[in-house]
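FAQ: What does a ligand-bound record look like?

Like this one, built around 6-chloroguanine:
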Amino acid sequence: MRIDVVSIFPDYFAPLHLSLVGKAISSGIVELGVHDLRGWTHDRHNTTDDTPYGGGAGMVMKPEPWGEALDALEELDLAPMTIVVPTPAGRPFTQELAYELAAKQRLVFACGRYEGIDQRVIDHCVEHYEVFEVSLGDYVLNGGEVASLAVIEAVVRLLPGVIGNPESLAEESHSAGNESLLEYPNYTKPPVWRGREVPQVLLSGNHGLVAKWRREQAVERTRRRRPDLLTPDGRA
Ligand code: 6GU
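The answer part, i.e. the structure of the complex:
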């Protein structure tokens, strides 16, 4: 998969070279291009924002640098571009959407700052590319950079060859085969730590009992923390 990121803070993306995503890059599963939007400005101050028409607080990102950036990325002529625009006004980013994005050949993350990007850039993108405006949740970040990092990590770990044991993908919270339950609690050695014992059933060697206990734990945890994931009668 090819991933391009456009931002006025390209340094935000240095951590992508760490850990699992870093390995996906060094092994060639992911090809990453990080681009400074200011490279597509032409004035002395490399201006990327301006005051909003109609008034109001904050600044809006100007359309011209974005237009040139997208044109330049398209001219790399790699694969059809799927544009991801992180914004608190977007559709909720979910595991299902992560799987959908993981099937694309080329993702381009357009990171807005301030009050966002001039709407005409989005309209232009919708006309020329596939576009996903996504939100991480109901809170406000200062820009799309941290949100892009989250989306990239969620997507890249789904690519074939990135995770050693693909079975672990199917078991985790929010994965489709999991009836949308939160994951059960996990334990490892030692069997007693600071006086706290590992639940006896996990030491029993009875796989049926273990599976039953884990499901009960997952349902109870989901009922307490995320009742919205359960059907109205509270059943999984
Ligand atoms: Cl995707 N962007 C910004 N700026 N804030 C957010 C967000 C995205 N998701 C939640 N808050």
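Follow-up question: can I read anything off the structure? Yes, for example: Residues 86-88, 90, 134-137, 139-141, 143-144, 147 surround 6-chloroguanine (CB under 6 Å).
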